[in-house]
């Protein structure tokens, strides 16, 4: 196996025997095969789209398939077998529709061949490779095929093009994850799907130069912007705009269920199914901001928050006296102490773990919660505030602008992104500790758990620590920056705002590409830089976007605040 898609990749270069995340070589191989098959599907879907032939099932599938291969989503090799088959089935269905449309029409065939990268006079209709490959009959065969179709290790290939190609693939994984979340809430876009297929199909092309790949990388950022906009519309359309909300960190006596991941729809279904049963629902990790949504917090048994970020789950989950539901990333290998009470749903998987299927019948969790009895008594562990998404922050925009103009607020810091296990990540906590008292910290995603329960006080009633939401809410943070720039009549880059970001998985790659595609400069990124970014690509980013690795909180604060 070879995988270097996330920040914790072995030795900062690549996992080769087993993933640091726990992904074994067999699962890595079938994931690679799924990406290979999905590229073939997108190659055909892109050609079909140019002829006006679309297939919503194929669009949705590409989102789900790529999301399944995101870091810490699905470690169960068996689950990838039907996915590979489905990719090929959808591909062949689109092919036969194209065949029908182009029957006897040489002109149309010429266009189709061009779209899939063939010469007009080619004797074949679709190129060899993922557009024509046939999957093996079983998992073992697919693992063998997967080993042949991982990240191409071609010493002749241009390092920088290889780097940008992988960047596009990882950015697309993140964008597809957001598009999948959005589609679950009824928000889809032809514009996004067309870009998704075009970009994925482009990763098979050999005729593109460095400049083309730089452009495709920016296009990927823009596609992700669209996906995040759809998701924002889905979340706020269905559950209302988050409002500032106090969330208890303690416990309420009685049966309890803990929900982790990012999926609001799963949480809503669980809240409905547990109504009136005496069970309290707790969030974990990235589900914390759900407490701010009016249509979720209306449930009286949606109680509080348990634990911190994903990398602490093996310690934390064993202390939780009830079942745990993983709705999306990040799952870690369940420890023996809680392996019989962790459940997966949606695209998440761990071998041997009970999976709640598409019917979303959470009865096994409810029965488990009642059987276990939950917390023996009420405990008070303080609280945190959530719900400072774009609507809440922009609702007090006049006040914010006034505070800046009067010199009460000197600077805003967006300290956000993923958390992870590396010791270097303590930078983010230290940074927030050292932010001067006349500065405000906006945060989002699971990196906030390094400092989410700190009392930073307020500036004339405006809290100094504002939780914008999940990584899924990066659109909201961008909208806040854009609106502030309008209020100050300047560019976003001219605002007294600095972004100090942490990355781990591919949603963060997608968000970073979006920020770059919007022309945002001077981002500080850590704790380490992506292994898949070549030296020349990094130099390009530094020269054109002033992107820099984090150094120490002291030095970075000094550089930013002058
Ligand atoms: Fe390694 Fe990350 Fe890939 Fe897991 S996802 S195998 S940790 S690079
Ligand atoms: Fe975290 Fe996995 Fe990225 Fe949603 S939960 S931000 S790492």
TrEMBL record:
<feature type="binding site">
    <location>
        <position position="505"/>
    </location>
    <ligand>
        <name>hybrid [4Fe-2O-2S] cluster</name>
    </ligand>
</feature>
<feature type="binding site">
    <location>
        <position position="286"/>
    </location>
    <ligand>
        <name>hybrid [4Fe-2O-2S] cluster</name>
    </ligand>
</feature>
<dbReference type="InterPro" id="IPR011254">
    <property type="entry name" value="Prismane-like_sf"/>
</dbReference>
<feature type="binding site">
    <location>
        <position position="446"/>
    </location>
    <ligand>
        <name>hybrid [4Fe-2O-2S] cluster</name>
    </ligand>
</feature>
<feature type="binding site">
    <location>
        <position position="15"/>
    </location>
    <ligand>
        <name>[4Fe-4S] cluster</name>
    </ligand>
</feature>
<comment type="similarity">
    <text>Belongs to the HCP family.</text>
</comment>
<dbReference type="GO" id="GO:0042542">
    <property type="term" value="P:response to hydrogen peroxide"/>
</dbReference>
<dbReference type="GO" id="GO:0050418">
    <property type="term" value="F:hydroxylamine reductase activity"/>
</dbReference>
<dbReference type="GO" id="GO:0046872">
    <property type="term" value="F:metal ion binding"/>
</dbReference>
<dbReference type="InterPro" id="IPR010048">
    <property type="entry name" value="Hydroxylam_reduct"/>
</dbReference>
<feature type="binding site">
    <location>
        <position position="6"/>
    </location>
    <ligand>
        <name>[4Fe-4S] cluster</name>
    </ligand>
</feature>
<dbReference type="Pfam" id="PF03063">
    <property type="entry name" value="Prismane"/>
</dbReference>
<feature type="modified residue" description="Cysteine persulfide">
    <location>
        <position position="418"/>
    </location>
</feature>
<keyword id="KW-0479">Metal-binding</keyword>
<feature type="binding site">
    <location>
        <position position="3"/>
    </location>
    <ligand>
        <name>[4Fe-4S] cluster</name>
    </ligand>
</feature>
<dbReference type="GO" id="GO:0051539">
    <property type="term" value="F:4 iron, 4 sulfur cluster binding"/>
</dbReference>
<dbReference type="GO" id="GO:0004601">
    <property type="term" value="F:peroxidase activity"/>
</dbReference>
<feature type="binding site">
    <location>
        <position position="21"/>
    </location>
    <ligand>
        <name>[4Fe-4S] cluster</name>
    </ligand>
</feature>
<keyword id="KW-0408">Iron</keyword>
<keyword id="KW-0004">4Fe-4S</keyword>
<feature type="binding site">
    <location>
        <position position="471"/>
    </location>
    <ligand>
        <name>hybrid [4Fe-2O-2S] cluster</name>
    </ligand>
</feature>
<feature type="binding site">
    <location>
        <position position="507"/>
    </location>
    <ligand>
        <name>hybrid [4Fe-2O-2S] cluster</name>
    </ligand>
</feature>
<dbReference type="InterPro" id="IPR016099">
    <property type="entry name" value="Prismane-like_a/b-sand"/>
</dbReference>
<comment type="function">
    <text>Catalyzes the reduction of hydroxylamine to form NH(3) and H(2)O.</text>
</comment>
<keyword id="KW-0963">Cytoplasm</keyword>
<keyword id="KW-0411">Iron-sulfur</keyword>
<dbReference type="InterPro" id="IPR016100">
    <property type="entry name" value="Prismane_a-bundle"/>
</dbReference>
<protein>
    <recommendedName>
        <fullName>Hydroxylamine reductase</fullName>
        <ecNumber>1.7.99.1</ecNumber>
    </recommendedName>
</protein>
<dbReference type="GO" id="GO:0005737">
    <property type="term" value="C:cytoplasm"/>
</dbReference>
<feature type="binding site">
    <location>
        <position position="330"/>
    </location>
    <ligand>
        <name>hybrid [4Fe-2O-2S] cluster</name>
    </ligand>
</feature>
<feature type="binding site" description="via persulfide group">
    <location>
        <position position="418"/>
    </location>
    <ligand>
        <name>hybrid [4Fe-2O-2S] cluster</name>
    </ligand>
</feature>
<dbReference type="InterPro" id="IPR004137">
    <property type="entry name" value="HCP/CODH"/>
</dbReference>
<feature type="binding site">
    <location>
        <position position="262"/>
    </location>
    <ligand>
        <name>hybrid [4Fe-2O-2S] cluster</name>
    </ligand>
</feature>
<keyword id="KW-0560">Oxidoreductase</keyword>
């Amino acid at each position: 196996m070879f995988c270097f898609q996330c920040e914790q990749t072995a030795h900062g270069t690549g996992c080769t025997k087993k993933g640091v995340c726990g992904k074994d070589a067999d699962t890595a191989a079938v994931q690679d095969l799924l990406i290979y098959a999905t590229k073939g599907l997108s190659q055909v879907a892109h050609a079909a789209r140019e002829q006006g032939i679309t297939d919503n099932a194929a669009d949705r599938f590409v989102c789900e398939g790529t999301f399944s291969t995101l870091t810490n989503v699905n470690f169960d090799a068996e689950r990838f077998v039907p996915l590979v088959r489905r990719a090929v089935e959808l591909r062949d269905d689109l092919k036969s529709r194209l065949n029908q449309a182009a029957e006897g029409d040489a002109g149309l065939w010429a266009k189709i061949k061009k779209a899939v990268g063939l010469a007009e006079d080619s004797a074949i209709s679709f190129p060899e490779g993922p557009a024509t490959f046939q999957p093996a009959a079983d998992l073992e065969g697919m693992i063998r095929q997967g080993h042949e179709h991982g990240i191409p290790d071609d010493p002749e290939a241009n390092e920088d093009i290889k780097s940008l190609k992988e960047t596009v693939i990882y950015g697309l994984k993140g964008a597809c994850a957001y598009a999948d979340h959005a589609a679950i809430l009824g928000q889809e876009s032809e514009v996004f799907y067309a870009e998704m297929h075009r970009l994925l199909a482009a990763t098979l092309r050999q005729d593109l130069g460095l400049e083309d790949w730089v452009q495709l990388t920016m296009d990927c950022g823009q596609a992700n912007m669209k996906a995040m906009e759809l998701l924002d519309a889905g979340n706020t359309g269905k559950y209302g705009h988050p409002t500032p909300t106090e969330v208890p960190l303690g416990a309420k006596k009685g049966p309890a269920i803990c929900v982790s991941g990012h999926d609001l729809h799963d949480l809503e279904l669980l809240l409905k199914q547990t109504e009136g049963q005496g069970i309290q629902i707790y969030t974990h990790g990235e589900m914390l901001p759900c407490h701010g949504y009016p249509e979720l917090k209306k449930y009286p048994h949606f109680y509080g928050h348990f634990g911190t970020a994903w990398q602490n789950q093996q310690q934390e989950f064993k202390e939780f006296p009830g079942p745990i539901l993983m709705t999306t990333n990040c799952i870690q290998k369940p420890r023996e102490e809680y392996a019989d009470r962790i459940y997966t749903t949606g695209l998440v998987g761990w071998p041997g773990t009970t999976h709640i299927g598409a019917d979303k019948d959470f009865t096994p969790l409810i029965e488990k919660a009642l059987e276990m009895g939950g917390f023996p008594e009420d405990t008070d562990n303080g609280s945190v505030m959530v719900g400072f998404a774009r609507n809440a922050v922009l609702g007090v925009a006049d006040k914010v602008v006034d505070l800046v103009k009067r010199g009460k607020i000197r600077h805003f810091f967006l300290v956000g992104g993923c958390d992870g296990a590396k010791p270097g990540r303590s930078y983010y906590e230290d940074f927030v500790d050292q932010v001067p008292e006349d500065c405000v910290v906006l945060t989002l995603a699971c990196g906030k758990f390094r400092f989410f329960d700190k009392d930073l006080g307020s500036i004339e009633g405006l809290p100094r620590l504002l939780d914008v939401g999940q990584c899924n809410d990066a659109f909201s943070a961008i909208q806040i920056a854009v609106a502030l720039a309008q209020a100050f009549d300047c560019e976003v880059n001219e605002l007294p705002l600095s972004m100090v970001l942490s990355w781990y998985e591919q949603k963060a790659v997608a968000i970073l590409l979006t920020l770059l595609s919007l022309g945002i400069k001077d981002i500080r990124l850590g704790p380490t830089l992506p292994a898949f970014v070549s030296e020349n690509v990094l130099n390009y980013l530094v020269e054109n976007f002033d992107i820099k690795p984090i150094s120490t909180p002291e030095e970075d604060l000094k550089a930013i605040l002058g």
